[in-house]
Design goal:
2 copies of one chain form a homodimer.
Chain A (H helix, E strand, L loop, with lengths): L2 H6 L6 H7 L18 H17 L6 H6 L8 H4 L3 H21 L7 H18 L1 H9 L6 H27 L8 H14 L12 H15 L8
Helix pairs in contact in A: 3-6, 3-8, 6-7, 6-8, 6-9, 7-9, 7-10, 7-11, 9-10, 10-11
């Protein structure tokens, strides 16, 4: 994932191409992302692990890689986490929780068409804003222990259920036209998920701008004209 | 998005759930996928490496993992490939080439709306059919050496250019209504790419069935009614 760096350094490949493939891995974990009762050193370790897991994958990351990222000795990790897998779990759990919260914040809008639009925009904007954490949440779940995967899958189910319920309501109320809800919900969610592969905060779109654009595209997929009142 | 599988399986979190997250890794590399001048042992090593890279990532895979998959000693890899990175390159190069060929096979249709539909269907069907190879092609490119990444990025550019050119033509001819070609082409490609994360050949959709369904959704996104003549 060093291509962005490499190219910015003056290589011959154009910026957009590699950027698209290997989203930049700046540590975009904002203050307040991790649970409030997490010690500052533990938060720093989680943010370092996000970068490591996103760059080389969970299995290839050592505890030494994670601690080195914050200038600590390898043993320091075990003061805060029982294992590397627990670090991944804390990232995946918190990441999915925050994404769910972003959707829930929109979930009391009145009109079903507007609700679907807001949910898609929130979904896309969250994944763009937090693309490095989201990359770990999407691609590294196979590293979780079964009981931890259960917790994360439950959060994912609640997330998908929010979107599905809004689409079903819009369909029932006649403001959307959706021949197959399974395909439509999956496709809409893919718009947000896949951007973690290529999105960069210094690219052409702000998270909010991309959220707006993709929400319009999603409404079209769901059979609603975005320019209807 | 393992939700459907979990329910279908009836258990609390049967194998199917995790399997959907980490799409099935059956070696779905058909005979004839690799270059014809590749020796049979080298082909077997490539297919084994596809499974290893898809399961634990390029960086965490050892040459021993790859050779063990075909019952050979670790040194056997170097008879056929100079390095593990060259194995990844051969997979990525061939995978992108085959996907490009699948699109090119549709690229001489007459009507622009039909052409776009066929390209999306071919894109989605290819990624579903070859989801394990495609997973490596989408998620493991950061393991490539710069000169190899260049080759693969060129193939990706040609791939995206085919789709973009069809969308632009449809837009120019008035059969599509596309406010922003960049967003639209990215969104359409995401439908095919993201399915490598969750698709299983033994799931609800055949590769061709999913290709058809997503082609309809893509035409809606692009402002064409799929039921127009």
């Amino acid at each position: 994932m060093a291509e962005g760096e490499r190219r910015r350094g003056g290589g011959r490949r154009p910026a957009a191409a590699a950027a698209q493939l290997v989203a930049d891995l700046e540590p975009v974990v904002p203050d307040g992302f991790w649970a409030q009762d997490t010690a500052p050193v533990a938060r720093a370790l989680l943010s370092s692990a996000v970068v490591c897991f996103a760059r080389t994958g969970f299995h290839a990351t050592t505890t030494r890689d994670i601690t080195a990222g914050v200038g600590l000795s390898p043993g320091a990790l075990y003061v805060h986490f029982p294992s590397k897998e627990e670090v991944l779990f804390e990232i995946a759990r918190t990441g999915h929780q925050r994404a769910l919260e972003a959707l829930q914040a929109r979930a009391d809008e009145g009109d079903a068409r507007r609700l679907v639009r807001d949910l898609v925009a929130a979904h896309v904007t969250w994944h763009a804003r937090h693309h490095t954490v989201a990359r770990v949440c999407q691609y590294e779940l196979a590293g979780l222990a079964p009981e931890h995967l259960d917790v994360v899958l439950d959060l994912r189910q609640r997330f998908a259920a929010l979107m599905r319920s809004a689409v079903e309501r819009g369909s029932r109320e006649g403001v959307l036209d959706v021949p197959d809800v399974n395909h439509a919900v999956r496709a809409v969610l893919s718009l947000g998920v896949d951007l973690v592969r290529w999105y960069r905060l210094d690219g052409a779109d702000t998270p909010e701008g991309l959220g707006d654009a993709y929400a319009d595209l999603a409404l079209r997929m769901l059979g609603a004209r975005p320019d209807q009142p």
